[in-house]
């Protein structure tokens, strides 16, 4: 029993000493400085081509394109829904293709042509997809709408809007909590006809 007690006492005291030495080697002060080094922002000056204009901005290298558009360039049409690439509310076009701006670093967007919902209108009028969403009541609260429209335009350009099934499949990354889906499909079919005339 004594042996057992001593063994336990030796074990506990050895463990405590080891923990103490670890603590001394890696103090909270050092931990703080390591953490500060890791999170220190690195700012860069870049120029983004957005909606046909060159926009110089200074950004943290970790900033997403969505945050840069909304907070730096004040283009708030692109919405932050999930911020994790799951809802499609932040969809924009990069070089004409749909892109989730919440999953794109701003620095990676340099040298590409970015279009947001604010730049979609043509010839001082609404884009046919914007008009079709109004005509078919394709939105209720409107939170998902800019992402839906950007995705819908790309969907037609990709040739993925030939049937209702096709449209549902290729628009499935854009969620609508108001469930305006049937009206969105109707809007896309109308706009497809208009877009194909151009
Ligand atoms: S905010 Fe980008 S996918 Fe939801
Ligand atoms: S219209 Fe409300 S989330 Fe789609």
Task: Report on the architecture of this protein.
The protein is an alpha+beta fold. It has two domains: 43-119, Roll (Ubiquitin-like (UB roll)), CATH 3.10.20; 128-196, [2Fe-2S]-binding domain (DNA polymerase, domain 1, Orthogonal Bundle), CATH 1.10.150. 45% of the residues lie in helices and 14% in strands. It is built from seven helices and five strands. It has helices at 2-25, 28-39, 65-72, 128-135, 145-157, 164-170, 181-197, and strands at 43-50, 53-60, 91-94, 97-100, 113-115. It has a five-stranded mixed β-sheet, with helices on both faces. A hairpin with a 2-residue loop joins strand 1 (43-50) and strand 2. Helix 4 (128-135) packs antiparallel against helix 7 and helix 5 packs across helix 7 (181-197). The radius of gyration is 26 Å and the shape is globular. The chain starts with a helix and ends with a helix. 33% of the residues are buried. The protein binds FE2/S2 (inorganic) cluster (FES) (2 copies). One FE2/S2 (inorganic) cluster binds next to loops.
What percentage of the residues does DSSP assign to strands (E)?
5-15%
For this structure, what is the CATH homologous superfamily of the largest domain?
Beta-grasp domain
Q: Low-confidence parts, pLDDT < 50 over ≥5 residues?
A: 1-16, 18-24
The third-level CATH topology of the largest domain is Ubiquitin-like (UB roll)
Q: Please state the overall shape, judged from the principal axes of the Cα atoms.
A: globular
Q: Could you give a short account of the major beta sheet?
A: 5 strands, mixed
- Which CATH C-level class of the largest domain is it? Alpha Beta
Number of helices: 7
Tally the beta strands: 5
**Strand numbers in spatial order across the main sheet:** 2-1-5-3-4
Mean pLDDT, nearest integer? 87
Oligomer type: single chain
SSE order in H/E notation?
HHEEHEEEHHHH
- Radius of gyration using CA atoms only: 26 Å
Q: Which bin fits the share of residues in helices?
A: 40-55%
- Secondary-structure-based class equals alpha+beta
